[in-house]
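ok so dumb question maybe but i'm new to this and my supervisor (M.) told me to 'just get the structure for Ribosomal protein L17' and walked off. so i did the thing. is this what she meant?? sequence i used:
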Amino acid sequence: MKHGISQRKLGRMPAHRIALLRNLVSALLHHETIKTTLPKAKEAAKMAEKIITLGKKGTDPAKSKAMAYLMPPHNSPTPSSNASSSSSSSAFDPETFVAPKSLLPKLFNDLSARYVDRPGGYTRILKFGRRQGDNAPHAIVTLVDGPRDVKLEMLARTVGKEGLDLVESSGSVDTLSEGWEGLRPKTKHQVERALKYKSPDQVKEFKAKAKEFADYLQAEEAAYGGLRKPDINPETPKYRRPGLITPKSGKILRAGERLSGVSTHTTGLGLARGALARSPRGRQSVDKTPRFWGQARLPQGVSAEIA
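this is what came out, is it supposed to look like this??
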């Protein structure tokens, strides 16, 4: 019978491994978002779940265990008790601002109140490609329902874009103001899960983020002035081609950059699926032309200049 396999060894001796996990968990509870390798992220998230559970208990034994495990946070400027009010509103001054000595107030007050109705699942792991050099898998660990929840920001953008697509295609009511009807079933399910433990004010903030991204998509092309193109004088003869010194205007499209109206075939996800050079049989081939969101919804044969 094998023993001692409750957690990953992470290529370290026990004392080094325990200190590493204590540091990762303390940084996660303080910053609420950290980036590390995937095996470390899984172990740190598991330990952070246990520490937050101790914070929800609020008993003296729970405070003793949390105090014994957590490390003092670093690089966290907060006003000291003897700092003057005038210096507290100014820029960071190492002479008057010191780091907090403990994470216990945040754990037993803020985090416990945030997750009072949530039975578990306080952390989320998002894969973040691979690290340059040793090609180790990277991951982002975040605390859910926090101000730095990455998935919530991405979901708000998805809701804004799908709601805008619904208004433009069918001319129906705005799905952000009338509920979540009209979204894809998968997106609607993710929204219901993400907002299950949210307050009405937080739901309004989520809708505001989605509406802000929808407005950004509509104004993006006009704000950038379209794609990069030379400013040719109408009086210039057509046989004179624009040279290198011809002034240009518009957004420069970088290599690998995806605009709002470009298919996902040109993104990292499409490259991973091998969809860049694939032409699907029996279906219309995907248009990979660089364009903004408004240009992608023009009728066939209509150019952006006419619109």
